[in-house]
Amino acid sequence: MHRTLLALACLAAGDVARAHELFAISYSTGEYFALRSFDAALTPLGSIGPSHVAGMEFAPDGTLWALRDGHVPTIVRLDAASGAALATISVGLALVHEGGLAFSPQGIAFAASEANGGVPQLFRLDTSNGLATIVGSLGAGRDISGLAFRDDGRLLALDSTSQSLLVLDATSAAVLSTAPVVTTLGSVCGMTARGSLGYFTTASQSASVPGSSVLVRFDTYSLVQTVVGALPALSGEGLSGLAWRVDSATSAYCTAGTSSSGCNASLSASGAASTSLPSGFTLLASNVEGQRSALFFYGMLGRAALPWSSGSTAVLCARPPLQRTPAQSSAGSPFACDGALALDWNAFRAAHPSALGAPFVAGSVFDAQAWYRDPPSPKTTSLSNALEFVLEP
Fold it and tell me: Is pTM, for the whole model, over 0.85?
C-alpha cells in the first residue's frame, strides 16, 4: 500500500508528460499548458510570450513547432517543457490569419490560413528556412482553424464557417468529405491526431466569435465525435494550438533477430495506451520480411532476454505468460525487407476485455514484440526488437 501511494504521489508531482499527453497554447495570451485528454484539465507550464499562434504540433522527430499569424508570420521552434521560443523563422507569405499547423507522416509541415476576407489556402512549410509553397485553395468562404494528419496521409481540418470537419487531399487541397461537428467551434480552435484518434478544442465563450469551450475526442476515419469535457475558463479567444507528444510513455529495447533475407524488424508506436480510449495507440513493425504471416504479442512480467531457438539470432524480450493478438500479413514483397505490421492496441484491449492484463489499470507496464514466419530460419520464425509501454488513464 505504501509503495502504491508513493508511486501515485510521484506521478502527480513529477510525471506531467505521461498524465498530460496533449499540449495547448492560448491564442490571446501565449500561455502554454499541458491538457489532460480524459477530462480536459489544464496545467500551466509556461508561455511563448505575445501569442497569435495559429497552430502547434510535434514533428515526428519530437521537436515542437508553432505557427504565428499576422502580416509578418513566423514559424517558431518551442521548448516542449516550458513553451519558450528557441528559434524564430520568418514565413515567406504576406499574411497568415489563424489557420492550423500539422506534420505529415513523412515529417513535412503543412499549414492553412483562415480567409480573413480572402480565400484560405493550404501550403507546405520548410521549417529550416520558412519557405512556403502553396498547395491550393481550400474554397471561398471557409474559416480554417485546426489541422491534423491521420496515418493514411489524409489531412483533417476544422471549418468554423460551416461548423464541420473536413477531410482533405494534402497534394491538391481538394475537400474529399465533410462531417458536422457536435458543438460550436467559434473563432479559434486547435486540433491534433495520432492514427485513428484525434482531439480538437473550441473557442472560449468570451471569444470574438464564441465557441463552446470544450475538448472533443473523435475518430479520424468515421469522424464520430465525443465531448470529453469543458475547458477551464480562459481569457480572450481560447486555445488555438493543440499538440500531441510523440511516444511520451514508450521505450524500445532488446535486439531484433535477423531473418533469412537479412531483415531486422523494428518496433515503434504512436499515440498513448489508455484504459479508457477505444483507439489511438498503434504498434508499428517495419523492415519485416515481405509476404509473411505475422502478429504482435505482449507480456506483463517485465523485460527478458531469452534464447528463441538454438541457432537463431532472435531473442524473446518479454517474460511469459504472453498474449497473442490476431494474425495478419506483413504485405510487401517476398524475400524483401519492405513488410510492415500495425495494430491499434487500444482497440484490441477494448475488443478483448478478458485479455492478459484485465482488469486494465492505469500505470500497468506492458512489453510487446512482433513475431513472423521465416521458414528457412531456426524454429521457422523470427522476432522484432521489443517495446515497453505504460498504460495511461
Answer: no
